[in-house]
Design goal:
The chain is α/β, with parallel strands linked by helices. The chain is 37% helix and 19% strand. It has a single domain, classed as 3-Layer(aba) Sandwich (Rossmann fold). It has 6 helices and 5 strands; from the N terminus they run βαβαββααβαα. α1 packs across α6. The radius of gyration is 15 Å and the shape is globular. It starts with a strand and ends in a 10-residue tail after the last helix.
Length: 165
């Protein structure tokens, strides 16, 4: 059985910037624990998270992302689409840190072949412990996307798990 790291990213003191952590907390409360799934609050990112990524076969990152859509819009990008998004002009709010983590995992040959970014379009990136109403309302939809990806990966007949060579 593949192990999955679900990594919520963000600063919960900055309204919508902390949405990844808020979705992670929702997932922890709404869905049963699974010994093959690790929920981790990645905060505002740290290169020390590279070791946590390396210890898992699959990776799902939840983060505020500049999608160029209405506040609260949610989009899931997998594998190469995720990589292209992080490397393009439209990036995660934590673009350098997340991109650095992906690059470290690639260089150490520990980048999971199955990886996804669930991005939520922020509205307000200012002081405050609660997301804006539109972004807060997107929490269940973002959590649903995470669980759908996880279930699809579990039931996938192709053997894309593991790490990239």
């Amino acid at each position: 059985m593949q192990t999955t790291l679900i990594l919520g990213i963000g600063n919960t003191l900055l309204k919508d910037e902390g949405i990844g952590v808020h979705v992670l907390d929702y997932l922890r409360q709404q869905y049963p624990q699974d010994k093959n799934v690790t929920f981790m609050d990645g905060g505002t990112l740290s290169l020390t998270l590279a070791a946590d990524i390396e210890e898992h076969d699959q990776l799902i990152v939840i983060d505020a992302a500049q999608l160029g859509e209405e506040a609260g819009s949610v989009r899931c990008m997998e594998a190469e689409e995720m990589d292209a998004f992080l490397g393009a002009a439209r990036r995660s709010v934590h673009e350098v840190g997340l991109l650095d983590l992906i690059d470290i995992a690639r260089l150490t040959r520990s980048l999971p072949a199955r990886r996804a970014l669930v991005g939520i379009q922020p509205l307000i990136m200012d002081w405050g412990e609660e997301p804006s109403p539109a972004v807060k309302a997107s929490i269940p939809a973002a959590a649903k996307l995470v669980t759908e990806v996880l279930e699809r990966w579990r039931h996938s007949s192709s053997d894309r798990g593991g790490v990239l060579p």
